[in-house]
Amino acid sequence: MRRAVAVDLGGTNLRAAALDQDGHLTERRHVSSDAAGGPEAVIARIAELVSEVAGAAGLSADAPVGVAAPGPLNPETGIVHYTPNLENWRDVPLGPKLEVLTGRRVHLGNDGNCAVLGEAWFGAAAGARDVVYLALGTGVGAGIISGGRLLTGRYGLGAELGHVVVALDGPRCTCGSVGCLEAFVGGWAVAREGRLVAETADGSAIRELAQGEPIMPSVIAAAADAGDPAARAILSRAGRALGAAIGGFVNTFNPELVVIGGGLATLGESLLRPAREAIPTYSFPATRDAARIVSSALGSDTGLFGAGALALASGDV
After folding, report:
1. In what helix (H) or strand (E) does residue 16 lie, and over which residues does it extend?
2. CA separation for the pair 175, 163 (Å, rounded)
3. Cα-Cα-Cα-Cα dihedral sign, residues 6, 159, 234, 214
4. What is the model's pTM?
5. How far from 300 is each of 121, 131, 262, 273, 311, CA to CA, in Å?
6. How many whole angstroms separate alpha carbon 167 and alpha carbon 178?
7. Which band of pLDDT confidence, cut at 50, 70 and 90, is reported for residue 36?
8. 3-state class (DSSP) for residue 110
9. DSSP alpha helices (H): ranges in 27-131?
């Protein structure tokens, strides 16, 4: 039975578990990332968790480690170039440092790329050879499998579908570009629209539901579910941008599945219905008819399954 240690690195939380080839997660651990302590503190914490999980699971010394990490990174060198969710992370050699601390082979992957691997190995895309995965969270992550192979580009920086431009005159994105998909459907973008609307006469329902707390996408979704036209308009705009992007992705990659995951996907039909309705406007009939839009089957464990799949796919075990 092949097994590995799976690590899901986030800006707030750090999760780890042992994963076997049949998709069983055991010896789960969940702690703070300690991001304020800087890269060295985070890497030390990961190493501690890896040792703890490996020991508790009885893993052999040659069982590898898979790490799903946010931000642009190079999976070949193990260097994280940048991530806005971790303080002072610029060109951090996460992979090499973790190998020294753990004595194990470490496989580093972008969290979106890991997620599509996890879905293909253990989730909604099991058995599929052509898949586009979109993680709708604070930002928009993505991963692509084409012909059974993970597409990452020359330096592992590819598949940034959240930063594909869907509107030349669209809103500014946090990446610095204009009109990115993420600038419409990322959690921060939806919240931004909600805050702007809440300052107008049309935003009374959103203001009341927020009860003085920060306006989050869940508040906007609740207002939309209650029938508020302004909240519905916000999610419809985000959904149409998502549908336009998916239309382009099915034309480009001709997938059999488009898997939608991430916390924002739980907003439901107020977001996903306008997306499905927009797809035909932006895609060829043959490509869209070949693609099914499905929800992630792995939920909050997508990162762990993906990181483990990355390590298991390495052939080291």
Report:
1. strand 13-20
2. 8
3. positive
4. 0.90
5. 16, 19, 8, 23, 19
6. 8
7. confident
8. strand
9. 39-57, 94-102, 111-122
Q: Encode pLDDT of 224-274 as tens digits.
A: 999 999 999 999 999 999 999 999 999 999 999 999 999 899 888 999 999
pLDDT for the residue numbered 315: 54
What pLDDT sits at residue 317? 39
Q: How far apart are CA 170 and CA 257, in angstroms?
A: 28
Rg from Cα positions in the chain: 20
**CA atoms 274, 279, 281, 285: torsion sign:** negative
Q: Is the dihedral of CA 115, 262, 241, 155 positive or negative?
A: negative
The predicted-structure confidence for 134-186, as pLDDT tens digits, reads as follows: 999 888 999 999 999 999 998 888 899 999 999 999 999 988 899 999 999 99
Rounded to 5 degrees, φ, ψ at 22 are: -90, 5
Helices in the chain by DSSP H: which ranges? 39-57, 94-102, 111-122, 182-185, 187-198, 204-210, 217-225, 229-253, 269-278, 285-290, 302-312
Edge to edge, the sheet with strand 73-74 lists 73-74, 79-82, 90-92
Pairing type for strands 140-146 and 131-136 reads: antiparallel
pLDDT of 83 > 90? The answer is no
Please say whether the beta carbons of 99 and 106 come within 8 A.
yes
* Single-letter code of the amino acid located at 237: R
The token duo for 259 is 């898997």
209: three-class secondary structure by DSSP? helix
